[in-house]
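::Amino acid chain::
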Amino acid sequence: MVTRKPAMVPRKMAGMTTLPLTPATTVDGRLVCHYFEADRCRSCALLGTPHDEQITDKEAWCRKVLAAHAPAAWLPAASGPDHDFRNRAKLAVGGAAGAVTLGILDGDFHGVDLRDCGIQVPTIRAVIPVLAEFLDATGLDPYDVSARRGELKFVHVTAAPSGELMVRFVVRSQFGLEVIASRTAALREAIPQATVVSVNLLPEHKAALEGSREVMLVGESLRMNLERVDLHLRPQSFFQTNTGVATALCDQVADWVDEIAPAALWDLYCGVGGFALWSAAGSDDGRPAPRRITGIEISDQAIESAKLSAVELGVADSTEFIAGDATELAETRLGAGERPDAIIVNPPRRGIGSRLSTALETSGVEHIVYSSCNPLTLAGDLDRMPSYEVTRARVFDMFPHTKHLEVAVLLRRRAQVMPVSGIQIG
């Protein structure tokens, strides 16, 4: 139990830094981050490389990895700003009660304050000091990894384009939950744009960013007001951390789907319904696309969010969202003779794996759109689907200043050459 008197005014710890990311220089296009230069944070490992060069290198590496499945056309890479782009901050809490740091933990598990990190969108960067002051006032101890004691582990902040925020506090015990819950009114007054606030309990001592239990204090879901669709993010929902490039990815997938013009479309690993709903929304004339869409996702919460968005979009009658294992449901439905005209897959880094690859290979489905955050596993999955050829591919620079990327490919089933009975050649 915390017995010290809560500090009402935050005190800056020795060694705390609040050094901003300065604009790109006109000499070489590099961003200059003082956290990086001072070796306080190296999360943006490629920060020393000009952004254009980063993108060129990612495209070259992706082409090399997918060389055995080279498309007929590589489309130009999609990218956005190299700063003010990240819509989600996962902030480790360090320091001491009444003087917390929000950022990362160094190699010795000491807090490194990164409240001025320039890759965060401005709405997140502006609220981090307010969150630090709020936590200082609780008097709760940051979790000490070495000693295995303390309460405050992480603060997660997600920003919608509208400026609304979702704030999640990750704590060790019920005590931490109760202290934060008792100050909900103060938090709402300090951060009125926080339309969703929750506390997540992570009692175990392990390398994890969150636990399984989530207690809602304010709201239920964050409305991500995007171009074609409003998506609803609940605390443990997944959404890409770069809103601008994620929008470009959804646009590209929907354009390919419109080109294919399937009457029936499946979206496997659909999350909160981004690709499915983007494809259901149709063109800019506001008319829904004339197709039946089924989305499958393991998360019950994500499926409920997708259904809500479908109702708001006016496509609930032409969409079906199912909570379940994508591989198992696809195998079952394909095995029962169902065959959509096209399938979208957007798996985690491990890829779709041998079971789903095999099911798709033998499915007879004409087109597949595959969005991958790991070209290596994408290449392995394509090896198991020789009946498909990659017709187009595009790299998306979702994670500037890191080696990570997203790549989307459009697959088409190869034409089958049928032997002509009774004719011999040669």
Notes: The radius of gyration is 24 Å.
